[in-house]
Amino acid sequence: MKTRLMDFIHCPDCKGELNLTVIEQVNDEILTGEIICSSCNNKYPIIKAIPRFLDNIKSEEDLRKLYADSFGHQWTTYDWLRDVDEKEFFTITDLKKEDLENKIILDVGCGGGRFARCVSEYSKEFFGFDYSIAVEKAYELCKENPNAHFVQCDVNKHPFKPNMFDFVYSHGVLHHTPNTKKSFDNIPDLVKEGGYLYIAVFRKAFILLRLSDSFWRAILNKLPYNILDKVCEALSYLCYIPFPVFFKRFFWFSLQETKEIRKCCLFDWYAPKYHHEHTAREVMKWFTDAGYKDVKYIDAWPYCPEKRKYAVPGFWQSFRIGQLLGVIGKK
Predict the structure, then answer these.
(1) What's the pLDDT score for residue 65?
(2) Distance CA 51, CA 54 (A)
(3) pTM, rounded to two decimals
(4) Is 302:87 a contact under the CB 8 Å cutoff?
């Protein structure tokens, strides 16, 4: 943690001013310490250079007693880094590298840092937070970037001050929280006037497909992680069956190029405790209700044909599971 982070956060409970106590520091990096609210006296530990704004978290052992442990396992077990991650980020957000220059950016649900490692290189200041211990992976990937800051917290109880960020994004995260809309409502105020917000969540599939998928999910996400890892490895070979794109419409599996990435994607699909799907118009309304303008749908598949990229999907596009929709708007 760097001391500059203190300018961007307040107490997540009472919104009071926070004071920093340093226990161990190397150069500009605070490795261990404590953040204390001057108003309500809440205390938040800094463990392994990351402030932990979670209730009852006092040690590393405590960090592993959370529902998000599946994400910690996912991002710290699989070799998921790809050279195309940066290109895909700019494709799905419709942004260019120069759009990030001299900007203060927040990644809501940064996971293991898939996009954080790319975006932080171009921004003036970069902030990322996640509920799981995967945030430690993100920190390790970005620790050479002096402008990168990471926090462990819940999107529904985060410490970030309003109107601080030029661009806030959350890709493939909010639908894995207990309530997607409630989680979304904690984000729009973080953006500065004139700044942008981007959200990507699962697109609602046809009800019979959702029922079928829920049946398999109810079985698979109850398996111990070591067993589910083996199941995901077996399912990773489904990409070699005849007409995989057709069958993927009814039972989700990954078509990524490498087996390791396919396993990671499968684990991401079947392991989480929470899974919600939404329509594009539903999410776009969240933006307009929050006072955003120029709200635009963007297909969150980075290789989507250009003619389909901005076309709001209708009923016939619901006959396929596992699709992401993206929405961006200006405050």
Answers:
(1) 63
(2) 9
(3) 0.94
(4) yes
Asked if residue 285 lies in contact with residue 297, where contact means CB atoms within 8 angstroms, the answer is no
Please determine, for residue 67, whether its predicted confidence score (pLDDT) is greater than 70: no
CA distance 53 to 42: 10
- 65 versus 168: which is more confidently predicted? 168
Contact 140, 178 (CB under 8 A): no
Q: Let me know: does 54 contact 66? Beta carbons within 8 Å.
A: yes
Q: What DSSP line would sit under 140-187, residue for residue? A: HHHTT-TTEEEEEE-GGG--BPSS-EEEEEEES-GGGSS-HHHHHTTS
CB-neighbour burial class of residue 275 (10 A; exposed 0-12, middle 13-18, buried 19+): middle
- Beta strands 191-202 and 50-53 are unpaired
pLDDT tens track for 289-301:
999 999 999 999 9
Q: Which of 128, 125, 219, 213 is nearest to 170 (CA)?
A: 128
CA–CA distance, 284 with 281 (Å, rounded to integer): 5
Tokens of 179: 């309530």
Strand partners of residue 105: 126, 167
How confident is the model at residue 5, as a pLDDT? 97
User: Token digits for 75?
Assistant: 């991002």
Q: Where are the alpha helices (DSSP H) in the chain?
A: 69-77, 85-93, 97-100, 116-119, 135-142, 180-184, 207-220, 225-235, 244-247, 259-270, 280-289, 306-309
